[in-house]
Design brief:
The chain is α+β, with helices and mostly antiparallel strands. The chain is built from 8 helices and 15 strands. The longest helix has 14 residues.
Length: 254
């Protein structure tokens, strides 16, 4: 029996195999026939953060997964995942309420601090005054040691495969799209890509960008996760992430 696959967000309109319903304010805004399609679907693509949790709770496979959406939006969820998984990561702690009074005893200046949401910036903390201001603004406050990475990279994982690498180091050009199934030109990257791939697969993060940093003294570590770019430039021109996902669907790889 053929699989029944539905999309909510209209990102796969170039893939006629997928029926796209469009984004509505609530599930009640879909017609009875559309709700029946959702209920009978084997997989729902781009369910939006609003509906992903409900669909996953109903036993539906989604792309992206519910946790992928949560990871993209919350530094707090990201940090919890990093600590639980034990992945390479700068020393970081989460402080709630009165526990924030112990930050200066736990970390030496300078360090960096962040609020719980991805919309919050990453703030350098060089003295007590700036620490107090951030502690009053954010609860919880996420505090991370400052690691001076010589190089930063963004790895794009789609369906658990690293398909693109961008160099985030200031003044360095984009590496470009990585050829799937072959080693990177830089052999030092391969163990990092492999270990990061294990992490994203273990937690079903099937459409995610991962930032990693390299330091000659500290080694490498994952520093952040984010929503992937819609498109990027390769040696052969612009590449659309949605068209790439459509090609995986047509090939039966998702």
């Amino acid at each position: 029996m053929p699989r029944r696959e539905i999309a909510i967000a209209p990102f796969l309109e170039s893939c006629p195999e997928i029926t796209t319903l469009g984004i509505r304010a609530s599930l009640c805004d879909y017609s009875p026939a559309e709700r029946k399609l959702l209920a009978s679907a084997d997989r729902v693509y781009f369910p939006t953060p609003r509906f992903a949790k409900i669909l996953e709770a109903a036993g539906k496979q989604t792309f992206p997964s519910c946790l992928t959406y949560r990871i993209r939006k919350s530094r707090l969820v990201q940090e919890t995942l990093f600590q639980f998984s034990g992945c390479p990561h700068p020393r970081t702690r989460i402080y709630f309420g009165r526990r924030k009074a112990s930050i200066s005893a736990d970390f030496r200046f300078p360090f960096v601090a962040m609020g719980p949401g991805m919309q919050d910036g990453i703030f350098p903390v060089n003295d007590t005054k700036s620490l107090v201001e951030l502690a009053e603004k954010y609860n919880p406050l996420i505090v991370r040691e400052e690691v001076r990475y010589e190089r930063r990279l963004w790895l794009l994982f789609v369906n658990y495969e690293c398909i693109w690498i961008a160099d985030g180091t200031p003044g360095v050009e984009t590496i470009g799209r990585r050829t799937i199934g072959t080693l990177s030109d830089d052999p030092m990257l391969e163990p990092c890509i492999h270990e990061t791939g294990i992490l994203v697969r273990s937690f079903r993060l099937n459409d995610i960008a991962v930032e990693i940093g390299f330091s000659m003294t500290e080694g490498w570590g994952i520093t952040s996760m984010a929503k992937p770019p819609v498109s990027w430039q390769s040696a052969h021109g612009a590449v659309s992430r949605y068209e790439y996902i459509s090609s995986l669907i047509r090939a039966g790889k998702i």
